[in-house]
Amino acid sequence: MSTEANKAVARRYFYEVFNEANLVTLEEICAPDFIFTLPTHTEPFRGVDGYKDLVNMLVGCFPGIHFAIEDMIAEGDRVFTRWTARGTHTGIPFPTIIGDIPAQGNSFLIEGMTWHRVVDGKLAEVTANEDSVGLIQQLGRAILPSADVPTPSESASPEVQKEVVNRYLQEVMTQGKLEVIDEIMTPNFAFRIPTIPDPIRGREGMKQFIKGLHTSFPDVEVTLHYQIVEDNKVAVRYSLTGTHKAEFLGIPASNNQVTDQGNDLFHFVGNQIESIWVAEDALGLVEKMGGITA
Question: Do the beta carbons of residue 84 and residue 67 sit within 8 Å?
């Protein structure tokens, strides 16, 4: 089979088996002698029936768990994937080598990498590594001495979450109040925007981003057009204006007035923002800064 066909099998593994908890797909894409190896489990999972137990355990612990493929490459019969997974521990206790962790409503976001070996269109072997330490700590069990362990938090009301988003847009983005970041963002906060290859992580990382934004656009102003909220997620439509006074995205100051329109998706833990995903008109912004020449 082609490498693209092998990639398609690997995608079904993440999107259908885990995101949809579709065990029928698992039976379709796995070979009879399928084997799955993960270092945190002393023995590999063998065969489809054995692996179903793992899938059922993850979905039972983290209803709605979601995997996202960040990178995928393939050669011959092997496919390599870098992925992220997020969820909230609201189900059964999560079994680990240091004991079961009871559900406390904590959310997590971890990264991992997986090898798939595909033979004749079927998964013959899967080997994975994941951020198990980060997962356990985000679920509320300390491992490393310096780790920030989240305390259980109840979901904030939709009205409170919308107000927090408003504070982010007005007090942080527009007014540049860095101290507000400590109030409204979790310690493990992550900010993802396509123009920056790697996520901005933590409160201090976000403070540096806001400082840079206000250096480049001292008069930046963000306007909220509309927002909706559901299940600890808030989506917004916004516009941004400012004067390009210093280098931004590698483009020297142009003194041009710029406008930008975009969408943000906020993930909440309690009344704090855990992550922000941004989709903006980056091409239009670059053009208005004079970064595109004929």
Answer: yes
